[in-house]
TrEMBL record, chains A, B:
Domain of life: Bacteria
The protein's name: Cytidine deaminase
PANTHER family: CYTOSINE DEAMINASE, CYTOSINE DEAMINASE FAMILY MEMBER
Record pathway: Pyrimidine metabolism
Keywords: Cytoplasm, Hydrolase, Metal-binding, Zinc
Cofactors that this protein relies on: Zn(2+)
Record-linked Pfam families: dCMP_cyt_deam_1 (PF00383)
Coarse class of the protein's main subcellular location: cytoplasm
Taxonomic lineage: Bacteria, Pseudomonadati, Bacteroidota, Cytophagia, Cytophagales
Organism: Cyclobacterium amurskyense
Domain CMP/dCMP-type deaminase span(s) in chain numbering: 1-116
Annotated GO CC locations: cytoplasm
Subunit relationships: Homodimer.
C-alpha cells in the first residue's frame, strides 16, 4: 500500500467516524504531508470542503513553487471543483485511490498536463460502496446530483 | 447597473476594506440572494475562499434543483476552482463583472453548457486594476502564479 494513500484513507475513516462522507486526501511536498483533510459536508455543513479542498485549506497559503512540486492523494477521483483547484494551483500529479464509484475530471486534468495515477484500491472502493448504499441522497448532494 | 452585480461589487468593496482581495460574488435564486461572499485569502488565510466559493459556502447546503435555477454573479471572471464548482453544482448561468484583469475558465463553462454573460463593468475593472498595481504578489498567489 502506498504510504500516502494510506494516510488519505485514514482521513476518510476519520470522516466516517464523525458521521461524514468518507473521502480523504493528503497534500504531499518533498515526501512530507503538508496538508491533510476529509470531506466535511455533514460535519461543517460545508458545500466546498471536499477531502481535497480540506487538505489544501489545511496546508495553508503556499507559493506556486511549492504547489508545483506537490502530489495530491485522494481516496476518490476528484470532482470538477477539486480538479479545478488542482489546476488553479498547478499541482502536477494526482494519485487516486479509486474511480469505480465516481469518475471526476480525470480527462480534463490529463488534457491540462496533470499526471493522473489510479491505484484501484479495494479498501477505498469498499468504503464508498457501503457508504453510498446506506446514504444515497447525501452522496448525490455531494456530487451535485 | 445590474442590481445583483451591484451587490457583488459591495462584497468586493467589503473585502477591500478588510485588507483583502476585492472580488465579490452573490448567488441568486428566484431573484433573491441566497448566498453572498468575498475573497478571504488574507482575512482567513484561506486558499479556497475565493468570492464565488464564499458565496456558495454561505448559501449553505442546497439541493440540485435549487442550484439548477441559480445565477451566480461575480465581479471577476471565475478561475478554474470557481468554474469547477459551478460545474459541480450545475449552476446554469454566470454573470461576470469584468474579464480584462483575468480570464478564467469561461471557454470550459460554455463548452459544458453554462450561459456566460460578461458585463464589462468599469467599476469592477478599476477596483482590480488599482488593487493589482499595489499588490502584485498577493494577486499572483491568488491565481496560483
Amino acid at each position: 500500500m502506498n504510504e500516502f494513500l494510506l494516510e488519505a484513507i485514514k482521513e476518510a475513516k476519520t470522516g466516517l467516524a464523525e458521521g461524514g462522507i468518507p473521502i480523504g486526501s493528503v497534500l504531499v511536498h518533498d515526501r512530507k504531508i503538508i496538508g491533510r483533510g476529509h470531506n466535511r459536508r455533514v460535519q461543517n455543513s460545508s458545500v466546498i470542503l471536499h477531502g481535497e479542498m480540506d487538505a489544501l485549506e489545511n496546508a495553508g497559503r503556499q507559493s506556486a513553487s511549492v504547489y508545483s512540486e506537490c502530489v495530491i492523494y485522494t481516496t476518490l477521483s476528484p470532482c470538477s471543483m477539486c480538479s479545478g483547484t488542482i489546476l488553479l494551483y498547478g499541482i502536477p500529479k494526482v494519485v487516486i485511490g479509486e474511480n469505480e464509484t465516481f469518475v471526476g475530471e480525470e480527462k480534463l486534468l490529463k488534457e491540462r498536463g496533470v499526471e493522473v495515477v489510479v491505484i484501484n484500491d479495494p479498501t477505498c472502493k469498499e468504503i464508498m460502496r457501503s457508504f453510498i448504499e446506506a446514504n444515497k441522497d447525501l452522496w448525490n448532494e455531494d456530487i451535485g446530483v
